[in-house]
Amino acid sequence: MRDPHSHASATADAVQAEAGAWIARRDEGSWRDTDQAELDAWLAQSTAHMIAFVRLEDMWKRADRLKALVPRAGAGKGTLRHLVPGTLVWKSVAAAAVVASVGTAALLYQSRPTEAMYATAIGGHKLLKLADGSSIDLNTDTRLRLSVSANRVTAKLDRGEVFFRVKHDPHRLFVVLAGRHRVTDLGTEFVVRSEPNRLEVALIEGRAKLDAPDGRMQTPVLLTPGDEITVANNLITTTKKSSRRLDEEFGWRRGMLTFENTPLADVVAEFNRYGGRKIIVADQETARIPLSASFPTDGAQSFLELAKAMLKVKIEQHGDEIVISRAR
Question: Which domains does the chain possess?
Answer without folding.
Answer: 4-111 (no CATH), 114-242 (2.60.120.1440), 255-326 (3.55.50.30)
